[in-house]
Amino acid sequence: MGIAVGTILGAVFPAHYTLITVIATIVAMVIGALFGGLVDYQSLLTGISSCLMAGIMGPMIGVVADIGMISFCSFLVYLTFGLLCFSIRS
Predict the structure, then answer these.
(1) Distance of alpha carbon 54 from its chain centroid, rounded?
(2) Whole-angstrom Cα distance, residue 10 to residue 30?
(3) 3 state SS of 1
(4) Transmembrane ranges (predicted)?
(5) Chain-centroid distance, C-alpha 33
(6) In the predicted model, is pLDDT for residue 25 greater than 90?
(7) Is the dihedral of CA 17, 18, 19, 20 positive or negative?
(8) Nearest to 30 by CA among 59, 55, 13
(9) What does the domain layout of the chain look like in residue ranges?
(10) Residues 59/7, Cβ–Cβ less than 8 Å
């Protein structure tokens, strides 16, 4: 989800690249902590570290993305949010 959020924000606000990278990284780390926290401490650390890298890479893709990639990333954001809600509810 970090790549998807970073891609969307990077495509919408390409002039504010540094701020978008920081925001996408923080959002990705929070999402990774939520998913990882559902299992155990090791999964929590894995979720945070992998989403850290995804949050940094997302805006790089978003600056050069076309409309197809942005649409696909928007779909991924909604799908991941739905999976998160379903997994927390269960």
Answers:
(1) 6
(2) 19
(3) coil
(4) 15-36, 43-61, 67-88
(5) 12
(6) yes
(7) positive
(8) 55
(9) 2-89
(10) yes
